[in-house]
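Standup, Tuesday
Yesterday: got the pipeline producing structure tokens again.
Today: sanity-check two examples.
Blockers: none.

Example 1:
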Amino acid sequence: MTIRRREFMRRAALGTGAVLLLASATGASAVSAERPGRIVKVSAICIGCGGNHDAKLKLALDHLETSGEKGVDIACLPEMFAGERPEPISGATVSAVAEMARKHHMYVICPIREQDGDKRYNTAVLIDRDGKTMGSYRKVFVFWSEDNHAGREGVKVFDTDFGRISIFTCFDLNFPEIWREADEQDVEIVFWPSAYGGGRLLDAYASLYNYAVVPVGWGNIIDQTGKAAASAESPRPDQYIAELDLDQTFIHQDFTSEKLRRLMKEHPGEVLLDEETYRMEGWRFLKALTPGVRVRDLLSKYEIPTLREYRHRSRTLINEAREKGLSISLKLPGAPKP
């Protein structure tokens, strides 16, 4: 086992150690009767950046075969994984990967060095379950030695059948403004194809913005808590698969205590509530335990905003009040209801 793999599994183990309280929920809509929450299975294929095009493409397709056999919903390949030879999105690399996506009915993120007219871009192409190109992201913050053009389209958001995602690439890690923009657009997973590991900044973004991050440098898949995904497995060297529950979420302690008590009392036994691990932050973590239940449906029913919703609403209302010269108080229109 490599050092980086040992560290990944150590972090995954630590991520399961929270103190948890049990309660419950019922009455969620449009939910699988087989599993609680909203599960998506992701794969990070960490075969490295660059190399011989034909050899790397063959290796990538073999890894995608493994992902498909494991029932993955979306697999991500690394930054320019098949070398630096420029090609259009309609070229051989995307076409071959698209066929694998269609075969296994899964999404695939296929990064290439894109040739578009007289310009070259470090581009990640999103392929849908039918093998069709759904969209692409051109790296915004290109590294100095790449000899590529910087993307001008900014942050891209893609609505898949399992949730809302964005893609950033490698050097993009160092520029928090785009990671905040993903939060502002309610992204649920950020995929990060890269030539290196990334480390603590990835954990920090996931923890701060409460979205999952799937790094495709070393494969240390991170859930919305900023910790390594507890369900991670490695079916073969350099491939990491995890199940992410996009329903689990945080709420803030502000103005939610009475509503939360009522929710837990009226729906005993089906929701996990952690009030201890994030006490210093003033957060509470909730996760569905019973098949057919979604925490976010229950929060909506009891008029409890998620932490992200609370922040977004507060930012908007406080900024508007500042512009109007108004005092910030619970009497302000739209303010939280205790």
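Example 2:
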Amino acid sequence: MASDAELTKILTVASQAFNNYDLTDEAITVYHKILGHFPADILEAATLQTIAEPGRAFFPAPGEIHKTILELRRLADDAPSAFEAWQQVATAARGSYADAWHDRIDQAVMQLMGASTPGQAMRLLGRATTDEMISHRARFIELYDRMEGKSRTEQAMLPEVREAARRILSGQHVALEDRREE
């Protein structure tokens, strides 16, 4: 998590690239609320990447920097596309297991086959007919894409919002804290 001082320094340096932007204490408070939960090194890299966008004339809003952080995380995640994931599953079902693959593949194939372990799911899939494999492919891609979308949505949520969503799903009363200083 970036400290107040680290975040202020990152924003102050970045604001120097824009002669039309006055970085106020109030603005820093807003940026900290939206971005303060990220590590300083990631925040600095994303801020620099965001202000370096060709044609940028204005200092980026917190959401723009947040979006860049999420894009950088997706690049680092290196998760395969749904089709690439299915190719790995289909190859493994034919008996040629991959050394390692993304955890989401295990989750999707287990859900697809109604299995409790990846090994059990692969054994069931390995016995599927060609027609069943076509059907399984379509369903797997749908499941995998849904899991990817859910993961991206969760990553994009602010920590307070993620916690509120968790409490809503568990049936608890939800009220986001008012953290403004009096």
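Quick observation on example 2: The chain has a mean pLDDT of 88. Residues 4-77 form one domain.
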